[in-house]
Specification:
Elements: H1 6-11, H2 16-19, H3 25-37, H4 45-49, E1 57-60, H5 68-80, E2 88-92, E3 110-114, H6 119-126, E4 131-132, H7 140-145, E5 153-158, E6 166-168, H8 176-182, E7 185-190, E8 198-199, E9 202-204, E10 210-213, H9 228-241, E11 247-250, H10 254-261, E12 270-271, E13 275-276, H11 278-286, E14 301-303, E15 305-306, H12 310-316, E16 322-324, H13 327-330, H14 333-337, E17 342-346, E18 350-352, E19 357-358, E20 361-362, E21 365-366, H15 373-382, E22 387-391, E23 395-396, E24 401-402, E25 404-405, E26 423-426, E27 429-432, H16 438-447, H17 454-463, E28 487-490, E29 496-501, H18 507-516, H19 519-526, H20 535-543, E30 550-559, E31 562-573, E32 579-586, H21 595-609, E33 614-619, H22 624-631, E34 635-642, E35 645-654
Parallel strand pairs: 1-2, 1-5, 2-3, 3-4, 5-7, 7-10, 8-16, 11-12, 11-17, 13-15, 14-16, 17-22, 18-25, 22-26, 32-33
Antiparallel strand pairs: 6-9, 18-19, 20-21, 23-24, 26-27, 28-29, 29-30, 30-31, 31-32, 33-35, 34-35
């Protein structure tokens, strides 16, 4: 967090925005006119803060919109007048700036009550020296309106008034708008650095009790560092889920920035979000975000507050393509659900194998808060073709703990229930949970956990009866999913499909695939008339893979949002040789579309990179399609008929 140089804060009164040469001349005139018309609003600071009484509730503007000078001026007043008031309650949300009222020396004067725990309030909350009120962000304004939490004093920051007397609260509307409308006394810091933003941001000078002119740079947010490779991979996976024309919501930080940077190739995206940050502005500048497909507030980027840098603040200033609305509008799940193709993208501290996630606490340790995450995830789930995405690194504490856990720790707040999440994304892949039973979702989440934690998760899941007791797996590097082999292909006939290695969570997909095959196709592939495919055989044949010695590739398509397997190709290295036995099977309704050729070609490519010199295969005489396929590989092929089957040998050499 970057605050402006302390000299500006210490000067008080008017600074550069109101007394600069010669561009400041009109501002001086304007300010003088305002002072002349409203002299009672420009009282000495001691007189202003003497209006705070014992037990008052003091609201402070949010995040980067925090009026830093006013907060420090209030603290200076208390230090000079330590008995001026006691037991005042400071109400704040997203405390990203100065928070001197949390200092122990002011414990008799202030008690901090936050709706969202930021870093500079975390320790005092967990030590019991400050309070945390867990609540959906969309519900906070109603607390003020109904006086369930009365607001006596509001300290906010505004732009200078226009010719009509209206000032903009700029980058902090969220709950600030409602707090100001319901406060008994409003003290506003006039700051020419505050952009004038369209929407519900305006307040008339008549509705403010005191004005304190003081220019200072707004707080800026800098994302904390995360391993670039991990966050970039997560961003890439999330980008696969986002479609052209979607309306999205995303948070702030290194991970959301990586996600947004992976959307640069998308078109016609819309924004309906609690938060607007630098990444969204970058997409607006590049034309990726134009809001042309939104079903609500078309052509407008809608948000509630901004955490960004100075360049972003300048872009927001008087930009008619952007509107800020109060948080009970942006975060209302009903309003969110009205957006077709709404995609909510959020993160969490932990998710357990049943699909419960916490974004607010690590066990009994309060870390952040409910915020707007549940509002948006539930709204997106309710939207037509909506999707909820939970994106998180697979590990925390520099790789020493897994963020995917058997069960949430005792005391953890369940921010998202098992029904709130469609997709979970880590750097190891995508798990789709919606409509999955507990066993299926546990296996899906284990498949995207860090490989070093997968054996532990499987054993814990077995112990808790979340998965089959005999669930097999390949531990260590041999079983590490080779995500780099994932690829999209189009056959010469125009069939588009996704090709990827098999995962331990693919048992349901492979079971459905096996039973979709005709009797003839099953016989040609398995050289037997068997009619069943028990799970122990599925594990042995397809699912428990040593990727250093074998490969199983799935060809999949999407059908009504679900992944469907339409072809399987695999090879197994023959012990003591540099050759592998290869096998292919394609679903009957996808025959003669070039799918088998693509599977075989990609398998050969992978095998050659692993140092193999060729394939062998056993093919029944009636399996003419595969026989023809193997003979047309472009490599040297030998074919012998023995014991009722053709023995095929393919050498990876050009004819």
């Amino acid at each position: 967090m970057n605050s402006q140089d302390p000299e500006n804060r210490e000067t008080g009164g008017c600074t550069e925005g109101y007394n600069s040469e010669p561009g400041g001349k009109s501002q001086v005139t304007q300010l003088d006119q305002v002072k002349g018309k409203y002299p009672e609003k420009f009282a000495p600071e001691n007189d202003i803060f003497s209006n705070i009484h014992a037990g008052d509730r003091i609201f402070i503007g949010t995040a980067c919109g925090e009026p830093q000078y006013l907060v420090q001026a209030m603290i200076n007043f208390v230090e000079s007048n330590p008995k001026a008031f006691f037991d005042a309650e400071v109400l704040h949300v997203w405390t990203l700036g100065v928070a001197p009222y949390t200092d122990r020396k002011f414990r008799k004067n202030f008690r901090h009550n936050t709706f969202f725990i930021a870093e500079n309030a975390r320790e005092v909350v967990n030590k019991g020296l400050a309070d945390y009120t867990p609540i959906f962000a969309s519900d906070i304004p109603d607390l003020f309106k109904r006086k369930l939490i009365p607001v006596d004093i509001a300290l906010v920051q505004v732009s200078p008034p226009d010719l009509h007397g209206f000032m903009s609260m700029g980058i902090s509307i969220d709950i600030t708008k409602t707090a100001v409308e319901n406060a008994s006394l409003v003290i506003a810091q006039l700051n020419s650095e505050m952009p004038r933003i369209h929407g519900d941001t305006f307040i008339h000078i008549d509705d403010v009790d005191f004005l304190v002119p003081h220019d200072e740079a707004l707080l800026e947010y800098e994302a904390s560092d995360l391993p670039h490779e991990s966050v970039d991979k997560i961003g890439e996976y999330v980008g696969r889920i986002i479609d052209d024309g979607d309306t999205i919501q995303v948070g702030y930080g290194a991970l959301p920035n990586a996600i947004l940077s992976n959307l640069r190739h998308k078109k016609d995206l819309g924004i309906h979000s609690e938060l607007l940050g630098d990444g969204i502005v970058d997409l607006m500048k590049s034309g990726v975000v134009n809001n042309s497909k939104k079903t609500v507030d078309r052509d407008k980027t809608v948000a509630s507050f901004c955490i960004g840098n100075r360049e972003t603040y300048r872009y927001l200033d008087d930009n008619p393509a952007i509107e800020f609305r109060a948080i009970d509008y942006t975060n209302d799940p009903v309003n969110i659900a009205m957006h077709k193709n709404m995609v909510a993208i959020n993160t969490a501290l932990e998710i357990d194998l049943t699909g419960q996630a916490t974004a607010e606490s690590l066990g009994k340790y309060f870390f952040s808060g409910i915020g707007g995450q549940a509002d948006f995830m539930r709204g997106a789930v309710l939207a037509k073709r909506g999707r909820s995405i939970l994106a998180l690194p697979s590990t925390g504490r520099e790789g020493t703990v897994s963020r995917i856990v058997p069960f949430l720790k005792e005391g953890a707040g369940v921010t998202l229930t098992r029904g709130d999440i469609h997709y979970v994304v880590t750097e190891y892949g995508i798990a789709y949970l919606h409509g999955k039973n507990v066993r299926e979702r546990a296996m899906a989440l284990i498949s995207i956990a860090h490989p070093s934690f997968q054996p532990w998760l499987i054993e814990e899941a077995k112990e808790a009866a979340l998965i089959y007791k005999d669930q097999a797996y390949m531990p260590g590097e041999k079983g590490k999913y080779p995500a780099e082999l994932e690829t999209r292909r189009t056959t010469k006939s125009g069939l588009e499909f996704f090709m990827r290695p098999v995962k331990i969570s693919d048992e349901p997909l492979l079971k459905d695939f096996f039973y979709s095959l005709s009797e003839e196709t099953r016989y040609n592939r398995f050289l037997s008339r068997r009619e069943d495919m028990p799970r122990d055989m599925l594990q042995d044949l397809f699912l428990v893979v040593d990727y250093t010695q074998e490969m199983v590739l799935l060809a999949t398509v999407e059908h009504e949002g679900a992944e469907v397997v339409i072809g399987v190709g695999q090879y197994v290295v023959l012990e003591g040789t540099l050759t592998a036995q290869v096998a292919l099977v394609v679903r009957d309704d996808y025959h003669n579309q070039g799918l088998g050729s693509e599977l075989l070609s990609y398998l050969a490519n992978i095998a050659q990179k692993q140092g193999l010199t060729g394939f062998t295969a056993e093919i029944l005489p009636d399996n003419k399609h595969v026989l023809h396929l193997l003979e047309k590989t472009g490599h040297i092929v030998e074919k012998k008929f023995t014991s009722g089957v053709y023995a095929i040998e393919i050498a990876f050499q050009e004819k």
